[in-house]
Amino acid sequence: MVHSAGKIGFVLGLAAVLLALPASGRADDALRFSTGMIDPWTNAAGTGFHQVLIHDALARLGKAAELEVNPASSRVIKLADDGIIDGLAGRVGGLEKDYPNLLAVPERMFVNDFVACTAPGGKPPAGWAAAAPFSVAYVIGWQIFEHNLPPVRELTTVKDSVQLLNLLKAGRVELILHERWQVLWLAREMNIPLVCAEPPLARVPMFIYLNRRHAGMAPALGDVLRRMKSDGSYEAIARRVFGGLGASVTEVK
Question: How many angstroms separate the CA atoms of 129 and 177, rounded?
Fold first, then answer.
């Protein structure tokens, strides 16, 4: 079903919205995690990738979990470092350098793909340097693009992903840059055909973090993630969430 731009804008503007995790529901002793990633990584039904994976992984340790979405990245990281929340989901490695009370689970949660996309018939570039001849757009503040994109023929920055896709639809840019699964989900909701390059421009490992008061749980949670990857349950979650969006689920783990 195609949603209106207003409804999509509301979804993209969610801040600190508590999202239900499946099956066990909320519990007073549930571990509280936060993420900044939206559909299809999280959703109001509790069936997003982050939600299902966090729930299933913690359940294997006999723990309940709840997950909230909050785009205020720096504030949320500080909340986890201060122990006000128990942990973070879907964050880049190395946060412990600046936040000493955070501990990364020693197995990556997933790999985030950052891609170049065109309208059908276009030929997206195979690497950063190959983007130079294009008119390019991305969402302002995405540092991976700010730091890695070379000078291009024309560059436009926009405030959100809806604007980005509308620029491409209107033919005002030839190439847009984004995270793979969020842009494919949104393009489907907006009924905008999209072609994303393979391989992606960048692949960034993302991790679960725990406040250090849960340090004893980190190795066990890492073991759980590895077992889920080896027994097929991790891949099953990825295919269920992302399988209808693209031609393949490319090495999410």
Answer: 14
pTM here is: 0.85
Q: Is the Cβ–Cβ distance between 253 and 113 less than 8 Å? A: no
AA letter at 94:
G
Which segments of the chain does DSSP mark as H helices, in order?
Answer: 5-12, 49-59, 73-81, 143-148, 161-169, 180-189, 218-231, 233-242
Residues 98-140: tens digit of each pLDDT:
999 999 999 999 999 999 999 999 999 989 999 999 999 999 9
The span from the CA of 90 to the CA of 108, in Å, is 9
CATH assignment of 5-111+204-242, given 3.20.20.140, 3.30.420.10, 3.40.190.10, 3.40.50.150? 3.40.190.10
CATH class of 112-202: alpha beta
